[in-house]
Fold:
Amino acid sequence: MLGLLAGLFWWRWRRWSGLTRRARRLIAAGTVAGALGLALDVVAAALGSSAQAGAALLLMGAWWLCLGSALRAGRPVFGWFTIVVGALACADAFDRLVYLIPVVPLGPGWIRGAVTGLWVLCAVVVLAPRRARTPAEQPADQAGVAT
Structure:
């Protein structure tokens, strides 16, 4: 599912007109990192390697951080929510690779899993195509009609 969303963000970013060059580069770099992370996650699951799973989480966290930073200007709530998901993925990678985080009763992977499910639903809403409004459907203040 995350691979499909990465592909959709890659495809849609080329059509969004309000993105700066920096935002376009962040989305491109993040999507490459995310695709590598997803591929490494499949390899890690096949081999049962915790180190590779942590590296995959780090790459996917980089994807979410890049995507959130790029989308903050146009969609601030979704952009910040994406940054939070990326930070949780990086915390989960730290938890797996370096040192167990002792402060939380649940591992960061549990929290990240729950938040990622909500993020997927929000991403589907953001990526859903919107139909253009006709002049009859526009509100009076946008249609140029004086009341």
